Amino acid sequence: MLACLCTVLWHLPAVPALNRTGDPGPGPSIQKTYDLTRYLEHQLRSLAGTYLNYLGPPFNEPDFNPPRLGADTLPRATVNLEVWRSLNDKLRLTQNYEAYSHLLCYLRGLNRQAATAELRRSLAHFCTSLQGLLGSIAGVMATLGYPLPQPLPGTEPTWTPGPAHSDFLQKMDDFWLLKELQTWLWRSAKDFNRLKKKMQPPAAAVTLHLEAHGF
Amino acid sequence: MDIYLCSKRPSWLVDNRRMRTTSDFQWLLSAFVLLYLMNHVNSQRKETPYDLKCTTNNLQTWDCSWKAPSEAGHGTLSEFCIDNRSRSCYQLARTNIEIPALSRGDHEITIRSLQDAGSSTSKFILNEKNISLIPDTPEILNLSADFSTSTLHVKWNDKGSVYPRHSNVIWEIKILRKKSMELVKLVTHNTTLNGKDAVHHWSWVSDLPLECATHYVGIRCYVDNLLFSGHKEWSDWSPVKNVSWTPASQPKVFPQDKVILVGSDITFCCVSQEKVLSAQIGSTYCPLIHLDGENVAIKIRNISVSDSSGTNVVFMIEDNVCGTVVFAGYPPDTPQKLNCETHDLKEIICSWNPGRPTGLVGPRNTSYTLFEGFSGKYVRFKRVEVSTNESYHQLLFQMVPNQEIYNFTLYARNPLGRSQSTILVNITEKVYPHTPTSFKVKDINSTAVILSWHLPGSFAKINLLCQIEIKKINSVQELRNVTIKGVENSSYRIAVGKLNPYTVYTFRIRCSTETFWKWSKWSNKKQHLTTEAIPSKGPDTWREWSSDGKNLIIYWKIWAFFSEAYKGPEDFMNPISLALHDLQTEQAVGMGKGILLTWHHDPNMTCDYVIKWCNSSRSEPCLMDWRKVPSNSTEALIQSDQFRPGVRYNFFLYGCRNQGYQLLRSIIGYIEELAPIVAPNFTVEDTSADSILVKWEDIPVEELRGFLRGYLFYFEKGERDTSKMRDLESGRSDIKVKNITDISQKTLRIADLQGKTSYHLVLRAYTDGGMGPEKSMFVVTKENSVGLIIAILIPVAVAVIVGVVTSILCYRKREWIKETFYPDIPNPENCKALQFQKSVCEGSGALKTLEMNPCTPNNVEVLETRSTFPKIEDTEIISPVAECPEDSSDAEPENHVVVSYCPPIIEEEIPNPAGDEAGGTSQVIYIDVQSMYQPQAKPEEEHEKDPGGGAGYKPQMHLPINATVEDIAAEDDLDKTAGYRPQANVNTWNLVSPDSPRSTDSNSEIVSFGSPCSINSRQFLIPPKDEDSPQSNGGGWSFTNFFQNKPND
Question: Where are the transmembrane segments (chain A) (predicted)?
Answer without folding.
Answer: none
